[in-house]
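To start, one record:
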Amino acid sequence: MSGTGGVYGVAEMDVSLMRGPVAGAPAEVPLLDGVSGPGAEVFTAAARRLRRVVPYDAAAWFGTDPLTSLPTTPIRVENIDRVHCAPYWNREYGTNDVLTFRDVSRSSMPAATLRQVTAGYIGESARYREFMRPEGYADNLRAAFRIGDSTWGVVDLFRRADRPLFDERDLRYVTALAPGVALSLAGLAVAGAHGAPPLGQVPGTALFDDGGRVSFTDEYAERWFAELYDPTWDSPGIPLGMAAVYAVVARARAVSAGQAPGPAVVRLRATSGRWFSIHASVLRSKQGRLGPVTVVIKPASSAQIVPIMVEAYSLTPRERQVTECVARGQTTSEIAAGLHLSPHTVRDHLKAIFTKVDVSSRGELVAKLFGEYYSPLIMTPSADIVEVDV
């Protein structure tokens, strides 16, 4: 699959837009109806609506970082055992598989099936050989929840051999549902502020072995993982809440092998509302031998968070430029000269920005986007992770 550019341009972050019909969608497609709650509630509602018309046997729903498309949270897993977590992400980023989440995020179409992209030669897929066939699944549908060029989430659907294969009708339904899910996920990112945690927190470091398991941590990594998920994050087995961390570890190995662009970085939010930045890289000996993956986790700065906030407010490229100029304290005349615009046009851009961000002055705009605070939850972490039988 290939292609560039998003298929949906959303002017404002108004979740009421989900209530209207989607162009080109079958009339009977059940759309999201203003879903807004925290975390997996978005995916719970989407799964309930989708399953009515597109039956499936197992699924994995992930929120994604809109700048890197790496999985974050919320997470909803249906009928997939947690032992598959690490191999799942190792295949996604460590093999040259087909229909990866990167493919779906970049494609001109937001949904596709594994049999479709392999022209029926599904055995070409490592995902099919190593996971689907042993588990009895015959087909796989993947979709990206996008606003413009930004992917806010993805879904992985599986059907067993005793069901019909996914078809064009199924793809139309999933495609019709996708904009509402994307709007819900993006809207949660700008729902309000919970106050500012102290800055300058010490980063934590953890080492992951070849099997993707945590082998060493320092006290700060333990503290931050516990805040991100819960105190049982290192319990036996693989907590589903750690899926995003295992994904960035797998991405780091793929970067080291030249199979994916770097760096392997993702931003997540904890139950406290605090944002964290997680960076993973593969250590090497002086002789070039590959070692464990080192993961550095630390509370994120506002500079790392603002790009996500700007994406969530759907500011246009020009509006982003004007916003950055405002943050630098430039006057209307200075912004106009620097961007080769008329002062009147700059004022029009500012009015549009104020409306989208829901502020009434430049000071409020700078405080909301560039202040040293951490935005509220796009999810609640492990408490909102669900496993259900379908």
About this structure: The two ends are 30 Å apart (CA to CA).
